[in-house]
Each structure stands twice: as C-alpha cells, then as structure tokens.
What we know:
Chain A: InterPro entries: FAD/NAD-bd_sf, FAD/NAD-binding_dom, Ferredox_Rdtase, Ferredox_Rdtase_adrenod. Chain A: GO terms for molecular function: oxidoreductase activity. Chain A: FAD binds at residues 33, 54, 62, 98, 377, 384-386. Chain A: Residues 24-180 form the FAD/NAD(P)-binding domain. The structure holds two protein chains of two kinds. By secondary structure, chain A is an alpha/beta fold. Helices cover 35% and strands 18% of the residues of chain A. Chain A has 17 helices and 18 strands. Chain A has helices at 8-18, 32-44, 61-65, 77-86, 104-110, 139-146, 171-181, 184-187, 194-201, 223-230, 248-251, 256-272, 377-380, 386-406, 418-427, 435-451, 462-469; strands at 24-28, 49-53, 90-93, 113-116, 122-123, 136-138, 163-167, 207-211, 235-237, 280-285, 288-295, 302-313, 320-331, 334-337, 341-342, 361-362, 365-366, 372-374. A six-stranded parallel β-sheet of chain A has the order 6-14-7-8-10-9. In chain A, strands 3-2-1-4-18 form a five-stranded parallel β-sheet, with helices on both faces. In chain A, strand 11 (288-295) and strand 12 (302-313) form a beta hairpin. In chain A, helix 2 packs across helix 4, helix 6 (139-146) packs across helix 7 (171-181) and helix 16 (435-451) crosses helix 17 (462-469). Helices cover 25% and strands 15% of the residues of chain B. Chain B has helices spanning 4-14, 29-40, 70-76, 102-105, 113-119; strands spanning 47-53, 59-65, 97-99, 129-131, 144-147. Chain B has five helices and five strands; from the N terminus they run ααββαβααββ. In chain B, strand 1 (47-53) and strand 2 (59-65) form a beta hairpin. By secondary structure, chain B is α+β, with helices and mostly antiparallel strands. Chain B has a domain at 47-147: Beta-grasp domain (Ubiquitin-like (UB roll)). The chains are: A alpha/beta, B alpha+beta.
Amino acid sequence: MCGGDDEIPTLTRRLSSASGPGPKVCIVGGGPAGFYTAQHLLKARDDMVVDVYERLPVPFGLVRFGVAPDHPEVKNVINTFTQTAQHERCYFYGNVNVGTDVSVEELRKAYHAVVLSYGAEANRSMRVSGEGLAGVFSARDFVGWYNGLPSNKELQPHLNCETVVILGQGNVALDVARILLSPLDLLKKTDITQHALDTLAASRVRRVLIVGRRGPLQIACTIKEVREMINLPDTAADMLPADFESISEALKDLPRPRKRLTELMMKTVKTESGQHKANKSWGFRFLRSPLEVLPGPDGKRVAGIRLAVNKLEGSGEDAKAVPTGQTEDLECGMVISSIGYKSLPIDPCVPFDPRSAIVPNNMGRVKDTAGLYCSGWVKRGPTGVIATTMNDSFDTARMLLKDMDSGMLNLSVNKPGGQEITALLKERGVRAVSFPEWEKINLEEVRRGTAVGKPREKFLDVKDMLAVAWS
Amino acid sequence: GVSKPCVHSLSTLLDTPTLSVHLVDVKSETTAHLLLHSLCWSSSSCKVLLHFVNQSGMKTSVSAMEGESLLEVVINKNLQIDGFGACEGTLACSTCHLIFEDGVYEKMEPMADEEMDMLDLAYGLTKLSRLGCQVTVERWMDGMTVRVPQEVKDRREKPEAEI
C-alpha cells in the first residue's frame, strides 16, 4: 500500500503517531457510520489513532452507491468524511475484505477496540414463488446498478415494458420510481452511470405503481420524496380515492410530520381526478402484499404479480396488515422489491442474530465480546437517513470512550495497530488502497465526468479503480 | 455622488442620527447594503450576541454578524456541536436543527414548506424548532439562546418528539 515518492515524508510523520502509545481503534466499513464514528473518536482524544478498513477501493458506502444521483446535496457529507480521512491520525485502507483478507480476531489482537460499521449489503427477500423470474429485481440491486456498484454492473434490466410494480413504499422505492420516470435531460447531468442512462434512454416504462402492505397512514417514505414525484414533468399521480376515504377523521390527531404527508397525498388525489392524461403516471397502491410473481407465456419472464388484499388491525404506526383472503392481479413487465436491506454475518467470532439480521449489542457494545463495538445499520437495522446514522455513530463512539476512561478497555497495553495488519496483508498478497490513492481515482472520475457534463463518471470495475489507484 | 435615499437608509440601518459617508459611487440600495456589511465588519453596532447550548449542555456565547445564517455562525465560530450542518445548508438533512426560546420563535419569519419538510425528520423535534441554515441573524435576536437537543445518556430515555 506504499504510495509514490511524494508520499514518503507524510508516511514518516504519520508513522510516529501510528506506533505511539495512544489508543488504536479499527473501524470496519468506510461508509457514513464508519466515518462518523471515526470523526467523534478522533476529536475526543488527541492520542487516538483510527484506521478505517473498506472492502472496495473507494470509500463512502451508501453515500456513493445508495443516495440517488439527482440528490447531490445529500452527498455533501463526503466533504466532512474526506476531512476525517485526511486527519493525520486517521488511516484509510481500501480494498481490504475483513472476513477473508483478515479476520476480525486478528483485528481485535492488533487494536484496543474494533468497531463494526459494515452496514447492510443484502436485501430482504419477498419469499414468494416467481421471485427468480427474469424482470424481478431487488431495489438494492437496481439502485446499485444505476449508481455504479461494481457487483451490479451486469444487472441489465430491460425497461421494455410499460408498467413497473415496486413493492415497498419507503424512500428507496420512491427513488427507484423517480429515476424510472425522470426526464433524461435532468438525469444526464448527474453522476448516474452511463449504462443506466443508455438503458433509460431506450425505456418504454410509462407507469410505476408503488405498493405497500398497509395504508396511507403507515407509509414509510417522507414528504420531500413525495413532492418530487408530484413535480415530475409530464407525469400524473394515479391514486385511488377509496384508499383515502376513512383517513380525514384521523388527520387532526396526527403529529405534524405524518399529518403534512397525509394531507399532501390527499391533495394529490383531489387535484388529479379529471385532469387530462399525461404521458406517464405513478401511484401508490395500499393494503396489498405480494403472493406470487406471475410468469408470461414463455414461463421465464414476469408478466404480472398476484397480491393479497389486506385490512388493517389497529391504527397508527403500529397497525398490522392482515390478509382478507381476497387477491388481486396486476399486469406488469418488471417487479422491484424494495422491502428492506439486510446485514450479513461477517465472521464466525462475531455474534449475529439471524432473525433481526443485526449484531446483538447494548448501545453499541457488542454482547459477550469485549473490545468489539458496532455502529450504523449493522447495529440498529437498515432504516434511517444519514443523520440517524450520524447520531447513532456518535452514541457508539461515546460508549467506546466511556469504556476507555473506565478501564474496561485496557489501554495500558500497547497495540501495534495498522503496522501489524499491513504486514499480514502483505504476506497474503493483499494490497490496500490508501486515501491519497482513492483521491487519484476520484480525480479521474471527475475528469471523465466533466468531459460529458456530469459531476463524475464512475468506474464500474474494481480492477479499473485499482489500476488508477496504483498507477 | 451618493443619492439622498441611500444615505438615509444607511444611517437608519446604523441607528445613527448623522452619518458621514465617504463613498465613491453608490448607485443603488443594494450596493448600499453591501457597503453597510463591510462597514459593519469594524462597527460594533451590527454584532449580535448569541448563546449556543450544545448537546452536553455546554453554553458558548458568540458575537455574530447580522445577515449570517445560524449555520454559518456555528461553522465560523467553531462551536462544539457534533455533526452540525451535514448537507452544508442545502435543505437535504436536519442536522442543523436548533431549538429557540418561546418569545424569539414567534417573531421569526415563518417556515417555507421545504424547510418544514426536512425539519420534520429532525431528532428531538419541538414546537420551537427551526433549521439553522434557514435562519438569518437579525439585530432583535441580540442576547437570545439557542440549543440543540440534549444528549441522550440512556437509550431508554430517548426524547419523544414534542410535535
């Protein structure tokens, strides 16, 4: 992971704190949780060294691969993460796969504490038959595809159908709907990948239905995203008035955020009835759960989806969807399931609860495992915006600092930290990408993007990223 | 030459009955305002005293510039507020959430929909909450105290949103 000649003086200066007697913490995962945890720790103690390990050569996790291309302001957090990574007591090791290149056990031996911040890379399955048909995707893969996640490069969704059905009504579902229906003129000025732009240019999709198990009062998306749907050019909102009939009485008792969102949806129902037809449409469908994805005549590709009709038991945020026994079929050429991301176990020595798919913990302290902590989605579950993860990461950092102060974490023992791990990696033929090396990738992506009027043109292959990093 | 209306508005703004203005060429109200800002830099009459209480209850008093946003104040004065202003003032987050005093809140310019949309996602939302990036410092705010939601020491004590 040695950089070019100009890096040597920096390396020497850094090594002095890296081999010093202060606490050394290792963070697994270079996304928002990892960087916010690092930020808090570095600020709290001026003898603290923090190493951030990331599987990909590029940092920033879902800020890079999850946030929609047409939400560039949300990505401004990258600036604060960059400052953290450039801190003289912070080291970034990209291209290191914790779990295969180095074990969590080895990290625990080398550091005073290890923080797991590796997020949720998988997705919850609908667990219905037909889920494996062509034309059925998880939102996680679809988003990864238009955002340039290397493992989704070959997704090749065919957008040659008129109707897309999205299961789930969170902000990810709305992001997907919006990308499917946005004018290309807007999208081509964003950092959306070129191959997604090419596919969208040939898209025949005109109608997107966003389907949820429960009712309007339980919808998980937030008002800004709903407004964006309403404001889509040449796109009508196609809501069912019946879905909102019993809602108005409940309005007055709702907390303001829920009330405003509900009012906005109801206003949409009113204004859209009797309007002239736009070329495209989007709409919510409530009280429907997927039962089966239906194949077309060739038996290989989706042609529709069978939905169970639900009713609500209880009210408010805790209302439960209960099947009525009735079903309904919707014709569509693509199904996207947006029902949640899911964390995976990283290492046998780390406790993992398969039911909730998180690392069992007590306010960030991993249960029954001294010196191990967690922050972000792997700690709390895969919901919330960047700010939620930020607060959560600060909570974990505070817990860790408290344990350092109380002596629960034994700082009297010197730990080798990154020096030991780098040596191990070298033995195994693994070469890490340093932060300055990521910055070379960054510059090249920005250069390529500028040439075509975009903020950046992302590399889609790890090998291309590495070639630039180590050039 | 300086137009009479310009000098008048300048002196009104500076609250001085007479104002000796040595200006080269002030053609408009807008330019006068810009000049006022640079005059304020050295004048004490445009500084506004603000008190910030951070998540640990620590209070810091700063002298802010009229016209700055509260986000700018927090950043420029390097106030120790964790994770403030993540989206850098673009209404894409709620981390510059500030809680105001009753008497101050009601005098503020009402919120636009875009601000309320993001504010409604804020941790520890109250009826006296605003987003700091959307609030500009004005002279009448002199002496006010703003705070961020207090640190939750125990997860079980999570503050319920009051709105």
